[in-house]
Description:
Elements: E1 3-5, E2 28-32, H1 35-43, E3 48-49, E4 56-62, E5 68-70, H2 84-87, H3 91-104, E6 110-114, E7 121-126, E8 134-141, H4 148-157, E9 161-162
Parallel strand pairs: 3-9, 5-6
Antiparallel strand pairs: 1-4, 2-7, 4-8, 6-7
Helix pairs in contact: 1-4
Amino acid sequence: MHRFYGPLPSLRFDHHLPPAGLSPDRSVWYASTSLVGAVAESFGNLGFVDHACGRRVVVVQVSRPLSVVDLVGVSARRVGLTQEVSGSTDYAKTQEWARAFYDQYSTLVGIRWRGRQSGSICFVLHDRAPMTHLALVSDHDLGDPRVWPRVAKAARTCSLRVI
């Protein structure tokens, strides 16, 4: 079983149709297998973490296998890609790829890649992911005193400013 830590998305593999808000039936959830990874991927582009930002830290356990496109290692070659897609900062291109993947592979429910911010294993699950395969472990506001000290420590590990 894997545990995923997931603050809100960074939009790298968002499969929504442009313009934003046009496809309310499409949703994504970003996660990492470590809190450091989740913090780095969620806040790395900002350069800081604010305890009052209103984001949440959600931990789930995967109770049954999920079919995802694996972009870690040589697996990306199986779908005609290289590691560049997971390291790119051209989000328009990665979002276009995510839309194509979503439209062409209805049995796959997400993407697995190595995050460019911390090197941790990351996942994006989209609206086809069966929520029955995920068990909620905890759900807290980012600033909750039960989780904020760990989030702040993870942010400092990533050289992010803590507010």
